[in-house]
Amino acid sequence: MNPSPCTPPPAASGGEPSWSTADLRRLTPGELERLGQQSLREHLAAQAAVARELHGPVDATRLPALLRDPACLRHPVRLVYELGEMAMHQFAHPDIDWRNTAEEGRVIYLRPALRSRPDLLPLAVAYMIPVVNYGQVVTDAHCLVYAATLLGLAEEECYRRLCALADSLGAEPRPGGCNAVASSVVSLK
Any alpha helices (H) in 56-107, and if so which ranges? Predict the structure, then answer.
């Protein structure tokens, strides 16, 4: 048996380790969920690395091209500096773009104060891209790994900056931690 339930068994031919159907069926539901979360985390990091390669270093002037690139986003995205249906603890909120239903467009509502903070805009948007691409399946931790990878930051530094961003925009504090990452991930309708 494997030393770790989320480590694939070695490949028989000496190639990349992989999971067989039988291996997957032996996992407990918890182990299978951890494997899925680990796989999604790796996928998001890889997608962020591609976006960074194509559009980096990401700053406010390069965001529009990133947000229209189908290699990086599943839907075209428009930024709107309004609260929309944003909760008081959020600094951004993704939603369906009712102006672009033909292309299944998305909108990211941003706190209006971000309009005058181009230095903070890439961080706020990068954190929301996984929600735009994958919806409810992503967690705050997934958004953090994507944003950190896209912006070339360590996850701890990215988390610190997200907390400072939320605080600087006056986001309402959440019990148990940082405003930004306590529960910013929302579902798209």
Answer: 63-67
Whose CA is closest to 12, among 25, 23, 28, 26? 23
Range of the domain at 69: 37-182
| pLDDT value of position 19 | 81
Helix, strand, or coil (residue 94): strand
Distant-in-sequence, close-in-space partners of 119: CB < 8 Å, separation ≥ 6: 60
Identify which of 25, 47, 45 has the alpha carbon closest to the alpha carbon of residue 35: 25
In a domain, 31, yes or no: no
In a domain, 155, yes or no: yes
Residue 81 tokens, joined: 């500096």
Contacts of 94-100 with C-beta under 8 Å, sequence gap 24+, read: 94/128, 94/131, 94/132, 94/186, 94/188, 95/188, 95/189, 96/188, 96/189, 100/76
User: Would you say the pTM of this structure is higher than 0.70?
Assistant: yes
- For tokens 């990349």, the residue is 16
Q: How many domains does the chain divide into?
A: 1
pLDDT in tens, 115-165: 999 999 999 999 999 999 999 889 999 999 999 999 999 999 999 999 999
Are 34 and 5 spatial neighbours (Cβ–Cβ below 8 Å)? yes
- Per-residue pLDDT band for 180 (boundaries 50, 70, 90) equals very low
